[in-house]
Write a structure and sequence with these properties.
- Helices cover about 80% and strands about 0% of the residues.
- It is mainly α.
Length: about 190
């Protein structure tokens, strides 16, 4: 996805459609002016967070996503940015959002995010000691395989090999990658 709006169009489509049909449109949707549209979006994301659980971390998760949607609509800053940076932006926003979603409490989520971005003598050194050449190769492969340019190249390969052989090969690669990740589970 190249924007948070694009992400939410693709992610959890049934839930997104339900909130659109039963909350966003009855609130007036985008028919009552720009300010009201932004407020309606924020209300929908607040309710989306509340729908996932009645705790502060889910409410913050919903408002966090709603805030980015609001910023994108109000300032249209992604139109001037290269597509690959848009993908990176969405990836970072969503990954940080999952911290709020998965944490047991809001305090734990904030603590984790603090540890993620602040250098501490014990935590980050322990993480750096785990990084080796194999880890860097896997990280580079994951980044390469997730960019849209590589995905376009695989479409050409699919046309050459034929859909059946391509699907069998990609399934085999996914199985091998899954088994590889199991090797690293402690």
């Amino acid at each position: 996805a190249a924007s948070m709006q694009d992400f939410w169009r693709r992610w959890h489509i049934s839930l997104t459609n339900w909130f659109r049909d039963y909350l966003y449109i009855p609130l007036g949707g985008n028919r009552k002016g720009k300010t009201r549209t932004l407020i309606n979006n924020l209300i929908v994301f607040f309710c989306t967070g509340l729908w996932h659980g009645a705790s502060w971390n889910f409410i913050v998760w919903g408002l966090y996503h709603g805030g980015f949607m609001l910023a994108e609509k109000k300032w249209s800053f992604l139109e001037k940015v290269p597509k690959w940076l848009c993908h990176l932006y969405v990836w970072i926003v969503v990954m940080i959002g999952w911290i709020f979603f998965r944490a047991e409490t809001l305090a734990k989520a904030c603590s984790y995010i603090k540890q993620l971005f602040l250098w501490s003598s014990s935590g980050n050194k322990a993480l750096l000691m785990q990084i080796n050449n194999w880890y860097l190769v896997c990280l580079a492969a994951a980044l390469l395989l997730s960019v849209p340019i590589f995905q376009k190249k695989t479409a050409k390969l699919k046309a050459k090999l034929g859909a059946v052989y391509y699907e069998m090969g990609s399934d085999l690669i996914y199985i091998l990658l899954f088994l590889l990740t199991l090797c690293f589970v402690n």
